[in-house]
UniProtKB/TrEMBL annotation:
Stated name of the protein: LmbE family N-acetylglucosaminyl deacetylase
Keyword Zinc listed: yes
InterPro entries for the chain: GlcNAc_PI_deacetylase-related (IPR003737), LmbE-like_dom_sf (IPR024078)
Source organism of the structure: Pseudonocardia parietis
Keywords recorded for this protein, A-Z: Zinc
Tagged with keyword Secreted: no
Length: 276
């Protein structure tokens, strides 16, 4: 790692990420440039903002390339499908994620839905661990084109246990094995403190479906707890996905909601031998 001599006027220039990437833990938003070019691979609109909104905003502000890929339009993300039939919710969530990413990074965060270029939307709730050949090719091509230094996605447990989350974790592994370059792969996680303080709350709101396995602090590659303007920006981006977030914030209250979403944690994916 070389010490940056960047001046304010070239902060947003195309930095050579390879000069700044290192694998020391990221514990403040100012340290996010260590991650270099960032590619997030997620299952549903809102996964990216809940798990990495502050990280994405900091990376974009530092002039890093930031790309977010979403596998589905999240059209089944409702308890009220009569009011929100899938086609309607797909349209709404497709717009919401664009607005949310604009809150985080203006026009500097790139986004795409997997399958769009083939005209095949992946169906929310139906992602299979074995991707179709076209899906794997598409994700591999994105990895080759973006050439990320860091890839963010779910771990094999899907963070909440959701089958779509587990599927995109598996898809990312397969695509990375086929890609030309091997970036750092980081899996979203939570801490024991978060599970202690909020785990039962989140689980209760989700009919007990969510399961959160905490990671020890010493294992974390990203250990961010947002505050001040950073958490305010993340809250604004979450509110831009109101179809998924408004009822939750209303149910728990703004102050608790802020505390629940302030943390963003990632651990290195285990290596082929199971070591981190
Ligand atoms: Zn999700």
């Amino acid at each position: 790692m070389t010490t940056s001599t960047a001046t304010p006027t070239d902060t947003f220039a195309d930095a050579d990420a390879a000069d700044t990437v290192d694998d020391r833990p990221v514990r403040t938003t100012a340290e996010v440039p260590r991650l270099g070019t960032v590619l997030g691979v997620w299952a549903h609109p809102d996964d990216e903002v809940y798990l990495s909104g502050g990280l994405l905003a900091a990376a974009a502000a530092a002039g890093q390339r930031v790309v977010v890929v979403t596998a589905t339009r999240g059209e089944r993300g409702t308890d009220d499908p009569a009011t929100w039939p899938p086609a309607r919710l797909a349209r709404v969530r497709s717009r919401e994620i664009v607005s949310s990413l604009a809150v985080l990074g203006g026009d500097r965060i790139e986004h795409r839905f997997l399958g769009d270029e083939q005209g095949v939307c992946h169906l929310d709730g139906y992602l299979a661990p074995e991707p179709a050949a076209g899906t794997l090719d598409e994700l591999t091509a994105i990895l080759d084109e973006v050439a990320p230094d860091t890839v963010l996605t779910f771990g094999p447990d899907g963070m909440t246990g959701h089958s779509d989350h587990r599927a995109v974790s598996a898809w990312t592994d397969l695509a990375l094995a086929a890609a030309r370059r091997r970036p750092r792969l980081l899996h979203a996680t939570v801490t024991a403190g978060w599970v202690r303080d909020f785990g039962s709350l989140v689980t209760a709101m989700d009919d007990g479906k969510d399961v959160f396995a905490p990671s020890p602090a010493s294992s974390l590659a990203v250990d961010l707890v947002l505050s001040g303007d950073a958490v305010a920006l993340k809250l604004a981006a979450l509110r831009a996905q109101a179809s998924q977030t408004a009822a939750t914030e209303q149910a728990v209250g703004a102050e608790l909601y802020r505390a629940v979403v302030a943390g963003e944690w990632f651990r290195p994916a285990p290596g082929p031998d199971g070591a981190s």
